[in-house]
Design a protein that fits this description.
The radius of gyration is 17 Å and the shape is globular. The termini are far apart. The chain is α/β, with parallel strands linked by helices. It has helices at 13-24, 59-64, 70-79, 82-90, 111-124; strands at residues 6-9, 29-33, 53-54, 96-99, 103-106, 128-131, 169-170. The chain folds into 2 domains: 1-46 and 113-178, FAD/NAD(P)-binding domain, CATH 3.50.50; 51-109, no CATH class. It is 29% helix and 14% strand. β1, α1 (13-24) and β2 form a beta-alpha-beta unit. The protein has a 4-stranded parallel sheet with strand order 6-2-1-7, with helices on one face. Strands 3-5-4 form a 3-stranded antiparallel sheet.
Length: 178
């Protein structure tokens, strides 16, 4: 039975970023995705072009676009903001362009290119990816559920390290600006 420090539920943009970052920090990571492919919904976002972010430099203006979630976003954007998003993708060979209403897209205008960058990020980090896998019970003493649609954080065949229970890394789902 494999052991993991972090288990990420969901292979969308947030899950891929969370898994990749945890791996960068030296964690053994398992990424569970219920669909057969990673980033499936990402592939159709923005009409297949994938609106990656809004290029608004003013954090207050940017956070205000998220309505009620605004108050929770300031510390997040301070840690990883718009410039960091541009750097992340462009340093991995995917240039971004800013279009109307400060929407940032891949220069190729292909969501599939965004998925490729994110998949490469997790695979190079050594993240174990299981697609077609729904989470079951979580065997840990500590679980903070950040998203109401997630029921657990580990597959039934996964044993978590008992000496240092992991903080299950779950996606925080926030609806973006409309």
């Amino acid at each position: 039975m494999a052991e993991y420090d972090v288990i990420v539920v969901g292979g969308g943009a947030s899950g891929l970023m969370a898994a990749g970052r945890a791996a960068e920090m030296g964690k053994r990571v398992l990424l569970l995705e219920k669909n057969k492919k990673l980033g499936e919904k990402l592939g159709i976002s923005g009409g297949g072009r994938c609106n990656i972010t809004n290029a608004e430099d003013d954090v207050r203006v940017f956070a205000a676009m998220y309505g009620k979630a605004e108050q929770f976003l300031y510390s997040l954007f301070a840690q990883f903001g718009v410039k960091d998003t541009f750097t992340f993708f462009e340093s991995r060979g995917l240039p971004l362009v800013v279009q109307a209403r400060k929407r940032a897209f891949p220069a190729s205008e292909k969501a599939s290119d965004v998925i490729k960058v994110l998949e490469k990020y997790v695979r190079e980090g050594g993240v174990v990816v299981r697609t077609g896998s729904r989470p079951a019970a979580c065997r840990t003493r500590r679980l903070v559920q950040l998203a109401t649609d997630l029921s657990g954080c580990a597959s039934s065949t996964t044993r978590l390290r008992r000496r240092h229970p992991p903080s299950c890394l779950l996606r925080l789902l926030i609806n973006g600006p409309r």
